[in-house]
Amino acid sequence: MSLNAISVSYFVIFCNLLINLLSFAGQTVSGGKAALEVSYFGVRVHREDHNLCEETSCPISPGKFVLSHTQTLPAFTPPGSYTLRMKMEDANKHQLTCFSFGFKIGFGSSVSSM
């Protein structure tokens, strides 16, 4: 079973990175985790795990669904190139999906896609 990412959107508001993942589930998903990693110029600087059911409503029914996550950035986030990678697993630790995207943070918390 896998989840197919349809689109990922993100933006920064003050010190929060908001991520919305529009995805498609082939069958019901009743739980699991979302592992988030952030790299700065290719070096991992942050990692955390989240209960999948805290990021979206569970059970996830077959079809389209949205997973939303807000990541609080440190008060001073160095400007530069970042990569965010999210891997989702079901309750049996089978990988559902994995995606990543690059973005740049400029002075004053401006963000742009790479």
UniProtKB/TrEMBL annotation:
GO terms for biological process: sterol transport. The keyword Acetylation does not apply. Residues 4-103 form the MD-2-related lipid-recognition domain. Pfam families: E1_DerP2_DerF2. GO terms for molecular function: sterol binding. The chain crosses the membrane at residues 6-25. Keywords: Membrane, Transmembrane, Transmembrane helix. This is MD-2-related lipid-recognition domain-containing protein. It comes from Escallonia herrerae.
